[in-house]
Amino acid sequence: MSSKDAQKLAITKNLDLIKIVPNAAPPVCKIMDYGKCMFEQAKKEKEARKNQKVVSIKEVRLSATIEAHDFDVKVKNAYKFLQDGDKVKVSIRFRGREMKYTVAGKEVLEKFAAAVNDVGMAERQPKLEGKSMIVILNPKKQ
User: Fold this and answer.
1) Which of 37, 52, 58, 117 has its CA 20 to 30 A from that of 45?
2) DSSP assignment of 53-90
């Protein structure tokens, strides 16, 4: 039907002519109440945002010479974050002469990743970025 006929039909029914696919040849239109259409679309978008899961990144900082109990406390915190569905960024900052002993820091990070292996896995191997070594842990799917 031509657009003029469709417009006349919409006016007689006291509704609006809405272009659904304007770039098609011929354009696809619908006769309906525009306000109701916008309300339903907003409602769908709101529902989609409500079901969306926002993943945040929590950070746990260690040192290359961390003691056993401190290590266990940090593992427990990271375990809790991973169970909540958050990513965990584990970092070790090297200060001064500690830069010579980055191997020890790498071992600590690998040990940390192994300790939380049942709820999270490492995104990649520990990587030295400037004066800090970082590994990011992703939660495993339930």
Assistant:
1) 58
2) PPP-EEEEEE-TT--HHHHHHHHHHHHHHHHTT-EEEE
